[in-house]
Design a protein that fits this description.
heterodimer; A: alpha/beta; nine-stranded mixed beta sheet; 13 helices; B: 140 residues; mainly beta; five-stranded mixed beta barrel; four-stranded antiparallel beta sheet
Chain lengths: 382, 140
């Protein structure tokens, strides 16, 4: 009999730019906040999983948090670092090995686009030398093709970005906290057609910590709890279209997102129609649109109606990216996937303030995607 | 390479073909699956094959800012360039720079053909890479 797993505390260091603090220090800040909010102290934590993409080794946090001797496992899994840390903590508690642990993700990236090196990705040097190795190109070409197949238009991309910035205004951990109107978004500098600069998220800084516990432990300590119904991490299936692909198979297939999504729904025993709130990877505005379908929330092309009717707004039928997502929060890689779970926790526990989704919400869904074709999905329940 | 072309930017990437070039790929001897770029020539699990030189534009974008160096090795002076995927008949969908075409003329489904692409490294060394240009001789 496996243990039920609950989130019993959350902490966040605001996303954006914090010149005075390293990524690791922002991670420590988030851990302390999660402990404080849960009424726990560091010696209560029995194990930890954590990581960053570009800001150092998570386990060195014990220097500041305390030398309690716990196992602290560093996770380095690209864009799924946070999701993988949570999957590790979830599985550890579910197995019964420990009953209270930490998942932490943090990052601090320099300004501008990421600058990956071909050899790190198993690619020849010419691919980078000739200017083909940019994540921005991939995202642009994926949505460009999707638009031609399913009738998605630039104003729909603009509407997604406009919603993100409107939600970010209401989120105290967001980086971009000014509304941007759709005309400004559509007429801004083109970065990679059809995406303008307001349609892309930027690498940034930030940290998120989640405290996970078994049901027994949560009850014993009287901790308010949100149940983690599913945590799934999946890599790409044959025929998917991924970042950094010099060639694709003619026979097109699914995506790591569709595989992870189906696994998570099966684990939770619920379907897309049961979800009340969703945080979907929005590296760029088109990604949110495509991920609505890849995660099973609508058919390809139906996003046009969803957006026109405002179904994904905070007061809509399925609010999506209620804190402004990556577009408003930026993307510190190691922290980004955990931010989505943080936001669902805050929303389900009614602590989201001005951006609180109205009415009774029970099930929250989060989805992170990244290179070289990995997705992590979590479903939480209040 | 034809005499007017500089040496290829990488081994096992392109070869002379007629008046121009062709792309080299690998066919898995066990499964028949094609991969591009080609595997090293000494990998006996794969046979080296030449990809078809024509196909249709599958998707595209325009690179509007100079990529970071490294890995980008092009000249400091930057001009936006188009990039796309080209669906080659019965083969693969290949990523490449798009040349000899105005950005506003790019359209998914248009006929394209492979062409040699002179590429100047930042240190001034000329190399030959590959690109795709509109295939004006193709039936639309």
């Amino acid at each position: 009999m496996s243990e039920d797993v609950f989130i019993v505390g959350v902490g966040i260091h605001p996303f954006g730019r914090t010149p005075g603090l390293s990524g690791l220090q922002q991670g420590v800040f988030a851990v302390r906040q999660a402990l404080d909010r849960a009424g726990l102290s560091w010696p209560d934590v029995q194990f930890a999983f954590g990581g960053s993409d570009a800001a150092g080794n998570a386990d060195t946090m014990v220097s500041e948090l305390g030398l309690t001797g716990i196992p602290f496992i560093n996770v380095a899994n690209g864009c799924a670092t946070g999701g993988s840390a949570m999957f590790g903590a979830y599985s550890t508690i579910k197995s019964g090995e420990f009953d209270l642990g930490l998942a932490v993700g943090f990052d601090k990236h320099p300004r501008g686009s990421f600058s990956p090196l071909p050899a790190d990705w198993g690619l020849p040097d010419w691919y980078g030398e000739t200017g083909l190795m940019l994540t921005t190109q991939f995202f642009a070409m994926k949505i460009q093709r999707y638009m031609s197949l399913y009738g998605i238009t630039p104003p729909m991309l603009g509407a997604v970005a406009e919603k993100a910035f409107a939600n970010g205004v209401l989120a105290d951990h967001a980086w971009r906290r000014e509304a941007v109107d759709i005309d400004t978004i559509l007429n801004a500098q083109m970065v990679s057609d059809p995406l303008t600069k307001f349609m892309f998220c930027s690498p940034g800084e930030g940290a998120v910590a989640l405290l996970l516990a078994s049901g027994r432990k949560a009850r014993e300590r009287g901790l308010p709890a949100v149940r983690l119904r599913a945590a799934a991490v999946r890599t790409r299936p044959p025929g998917s279209f991924e970042v950094f692909s010099p060639a694709l198979d003619l026979e097109r297939g699914g995506s790591p997102t569709s595989v992870a999504s189906q696994a998570a729904f099966a684990m939770a025993g619920v379907g897309p129609e049961d979800i009340d709130i969703a945080q979907l990877q929005d590296t760029e505005a088109g990604a949110e649109i495509m991920h609505m379908a890849e995660n099973g929330f609508c058919a390809d092309g139906d996003q046009a109606v969803w957006i026109a009717e405002g179904r994904t707004r905070i007061d809509g039928r399925l609010p999506v990216n209620t804190d402004g997502g990556c577009l408003a929060c930026g993307e510190p890689i190691g922290a980004s996937g955990l931010r989505q779970v943080y936001e669902n926790y805050v929303q389900l526990t009614g602590q989201a303030g001005a951006r609180q989704v109205p009415g009774k919400i029970r099930l929250g869904y989060s989805h992170v995607y990244g290179a070289p074709g990995v997705s992590a999905v979590a479903i939480v329940e209040r | 390479m034809p005499e007017t072309m500089s040496i290829p930017i990488a081994d096992d990437l392109i070869c002379p073909y007629g008046e121009g070039i062709a792309l080299l790929a690998s066919r898995d001897r066990a499964t028949g699956r094609l991969s591009f770029p080609a595997r090293p020539a000494n990998d006996t699990r794969y046979a080296q094959v030449v990809l078809p030189g024509t196909g249709r534009l599958w998707s595209w974008t325009v690179q509007r800012f100079r990529p970071k160096s490294p890995p980008y090795a092009g000249p400091e002076a930057f001009e936006p360039y188009a990039v796309g995927y080209i669906e080659l008949d019965d083969a693969l969908i290949v990523e490449a720079r798009l040349v000899d075409v105005a950005f506003d003329a790019l359209e998914i489904g248009m006929a394209m053909r492979v062409v040699p692409l002179p590429f100047m490294l930042a240190d001034g060394t000329p190399r030959t890479s590959f690109g795709f240009a509109p295939d004006k001789g193709a039936q639309s």
